[in-house]
Amino acid sequence: MFLLIIDQRRMIEMEKRQYNITAETGIHARPATLLVQTASKFNSDITLEYQEKSVNLKSIMGVMSLGVGQSASVTITADGEDEKEALDAISETMKSEGLTD
């Protein structure tokens, strides 16, 4: 019972953001690399979810395996001590790369 309470509390505290991909080419090699580099700067566990599949955003192979295209809806979740800062930086990278508005 105690572990369940910890897990529920942890889930509530995670940062989660949803994005609509507007780039014509979706998340291809260059922006995927930049997203992975940005995520790798942080200690938090960071995941990218697309079509009910979830991958580690610190893994280029994982990100590329999703095949995220234009008009896709993705969710990025961060869990850890620097989760908010991580998602802020990832959001900025997505905007600067023209992946989302």
UniProtKB/TrEMBL annotation:
GO terms for biological process: phosphoenolpyruvate-dependent sugar phosphotransferase system. Keywords: Cytoplasm, Phosphoprotein, Phosphotransferase system, Sugar transport, Transport. SUPFAM superfamilies: HPr-like (SSF55594). PROSITE patterns: PTS_HPR_DOM (PS51350), PTS_HPR_HIS (PS00369), PTS_HPR_SER (PS00589). Residues 14-101 form the HPr domain. It is found in: Cytoplasm. PANTHER family: PHOSPHOCARRIER PROTEIN HPR, PHOSPHOCARRIER PROTEIN NPR. Belongs to the HPr family. This is Phosphocarrier protein HPr.
